[in-house]
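Quick one: co-fold with adenosine monophosphate.
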Amino acid sequence: MNKIVLLGPPGCGKGTQSKLLVEEQKFYQLSTGDLLREQTGNSNSEYGQKIKDIMKKGDLVPDEIVINLIVEKILIYKNESVIFDGFPRNLNQAEVLDDSLEKNSINLNFAILLDVDFDILKERILKRIKDSPEEARSDDNLETLNKRIDVYKSDTFPIVDYYENKGILKRLNGMDSIENINKEILKIIN
Ligand code: AMP
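Sure, here it is.
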């Protein structure tokens, strides 16, 4: 059973590639963004409003909240192939993920980075917002996008070196077509 981290900036296609792995390879997708959005929609959630405000601004939700949400799922899906989408997003989260996996004798097989050009990325997201405003999320706007890219560069990008040093990093061209990236991912995991 494969356990994979998918890394890359907002809008690079992590969600799209994860969904393909779910449909074609029976992966289970653990997306912290989705888990957090569930909390914001739950009126009983202790942190719902706080999380909503942070996500709207494009900042990272505090580690303790995100880690609590994800760690319990790791055990549930221990015997499944899992794709971590949007987690870890900083070094502390990467270390906590390693600890939790190790404690449960689970191996992280690969961290796959979807590498993209930031200017093209911005154009892509702005086009997406313009073409289908009804599907835009509350964090889909230029100000939040710029913030999310800054947070990616400062907090998330250092994880690339972390996984490189562990010898499990694979880099893919995130500007390639959805189909080609999917093929490359399948080559890595199979
Ligand atoms: P995403 O759906 O992955 O693009 O995430 C949307 C937003 O959720 C991010 O901009 C963050 O505010 C929050 N978020 C998602 N995953 C994490 C994480 N691992 N750590 C902290 N915040 C997160």
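If it helps, The mean pLDDT is 92.
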